Amino acid sequence: MTRIVVFGDVVLDRDLEGTADRLCPDAPVPVVDETSAVERPGGAGLTALLAARSGSEVTLITGIAADAGGRRLRALLDRCGVELIALTDHGTTVEKQRVRVAGRSLLRIDRGGNGRLGSTPGHARTAALSADAIVVADYGRQITGHREIRRLIGDCVAAGVPVVWDPHPRGHPPVSGVTLVTPNRAEAEQFARQTSGPPGGPTTTLHEGLTGVATRAFALRATWQVDAIAVTLGADGALLVNGEGPPLMIGVDTKIAMGDTCGAGDALAAAVGAALGEGVGVVSAVEIGVDAATRFVAAGATGNLTSAHPRLLATTDRPDLQQRIDGVRRSGGTVVATGGCFDLLHPGHIATLQRARQLGDMLIVLLNSDTSVRRLKGESRPAQREADRAAVLRALECVDEVVVFDDDTPVRALRRLRPDVFVKGGDYSATDIPETATMAAWGGIVVTVPFVDGRSTTRIVDRLLSSRGAQREHSDVV
């Protein structure tokens, strides 16, 4: 399991959801009737939560105040499966409350403030130096300016631990030598202005401003003395400056609708850190991060988080998926679903998917998440991350949508989507298939299609491992 250590400033986020259908009689402002309230870790806490959701083993090193907000943060982080190493914060917990109606924020109320931070606990050093990757989530408070923390991050850089640094305009500059810094466009412009005066060039559109973005990225890379800079551009993806070569433009899936971007930077940093921790190169890691952030936003961003189920946030459902399903049904069509790991896609998978699509007018693939695959197949699997497996599936003409699920079976996903037909590959009787009773609850059916004989991801993986072992033995003999 990949071990991620997150450094940064933690915040207690609270969303108050309500309805507004009238104005206040003494002022022209809406009256919001509260319907629900959700609390979650914010700031670096959100980054840690998202990294934990990806299946990584996560430790968060941050300051925690000894007040009610700090106690609540400790409980939420523990619920999310995040280990906490806390510096004593002699101030009060920073709390941010958003008042939201119909998924849109009307007002944000901030309170609290950090006091002086205590010394770094001794076991923080052990955790950081043994990590597979480090993510620094700077929220302009104190952690990134803490002398002991900066020295520790520098030691991690010297030890070869990859470090992703998500900066903040009110924070401190990255420690020199970090692997990747991920400012957004506005932050990059502000940092460039702070270091070298007003930026040149227009920034009104992507194409007009791309030269300016690249210029600032090259300048910041030299000023900060870091390996790479990825300037995030919202719906346009990210521009990566990695060495002295030309910048690389990393786009997004244009089929995904963008919405509330709150937390997108945290999603990107967490995904990039996890990828680097698994040994993925910087370019591929940023591609993975852009994809993760895009899907996080499309799924409702932080609005899709609940304090009751913090590990279930940000499924890869597109926000319009239910509308598309309803549209197929209104036109008299049939919605078909199938499920599996689809690790190392092979002809047997393709045959199953094509046959499933022939049974209806829309095919939804329910894809086991990385965490689910590890439970089912062992720690050596999957061979490909869920984002990559989903991208390959979405590229197939016969697949209309992919939904990732964390459970061992797709039963909960089926209950949410309620397809008309669920397709299983292989030889089963109705009593062998656990999804049969689930589908019957709304009149759906389960059908099977034959596997293509001799095709198996496990066999492919075993064959590759055997071939690699044979090559090593031959090399040893020679």
Helix and strand arrangement:
Layout: E1 3-8, E2 10-19, E3 33-43, H1 44-53, E4 57-65, H2 68-79, E5 82-89, E6 92-101, E7 104-113, H3 122-129, E8 133-137, H4 147-158, E9 163-166, E10 180-181, H5 185-196, H6 206-224, E11 228-232, E12 238-242, E13 248-250, H7 264-277, H8 282-298, H9 321-330, E14 335-340, H10 347-357, E15 362-368, H11 370-377, H12 386-394, E16 401-405, H13 411-417, E17 421-425, H14 435-440, E18 445-449, H15 457-477
Parallel strand pairs: 1-4, 1-8, 2-6, 4-5, 8-9, 9-10, 14-15, 14-17, 15-16, 17-18
Antiparallel strand pairs: 2-3, 6-7, 11-12, 12-13
Brief synopsis:
This protein has helices spanning 44-53, 68-79, 122-129, 147-158, 185-196, 206-224, 264-277, 282-298, 321-330, 347-357, 370-377, 386-394, 411-417, 435-440, 457-477; strands at residues 3-8, 10-19, 33-43, 57-65, 82-89, 92-101, 104-113, 133-137, 163-166, 180-181, 228-232, 238-242, 248-250, 335-340, 362-368, 401-405, 421-425, 445-449. The chain is α/β, with parallel strands linked by helices and 478 residues long. The chain is globular and about 60 Å long.
